[in-house]
Amino acid sequence: MVPLLVVLLLALILFGAGFALKALWWIAVVVLVVWLLGFVVRPVGHSGRKSRWYRW
C-alpha cells in the first residue's frame, strides 16, 4: 500500500510542477511581448522627442 501511495504522491508533485512551469513560460512570453512593445510604442517627452518608458 505504501509504494502505491508514494507513486501517487510523486505523480501529483510532478503534475503540479509541470503545470507551474507551463504557467511560468506563458508569463515569461507575455512579459517579453510587453517589453518589446515598449521599444515600439514610446511616449513623447516634454522636449518633444521620444522618451524611454523605463528609468534605467
Task: Characterize the structure shown.
There is one protein chain. The model has no long low-confidence stretch (mean pLDDT 78). It is built from 1 helix and no strands. With 56 residues, it is an all-alpha fold. The radius of gyration is 22 Å and the shape is rod-shaped. The chain has one domain (1-56).
The global form is rod-shaped
Q: What's the Cα radius of gyration?
A: 22 Å
- What is the number of domains? 1
End-to-end distance? 58 Å
Integer average pLDDT: 78
Overall strand count: 0
Order of helices and strands: H
Strand content: under 5%
Which stretches of 5+ consecutive residues score pLDDT under 50? Answer: none
Number of helices: 1
Characterize the largest beta sheet: strand count, sense, and whether it forms a barrel.
none
Please state the structural category.
Answer: mainly alpha
Percent in helix: 55-70%
Name some characteristics of this structure.
56 residues; mainly alpha
Short description:
By secondary structure, this protein is mostly helical. Helix content is about 70%, strand content about 0%.
List the helices and strands and how they pair.
Blueprint: H1 2-40
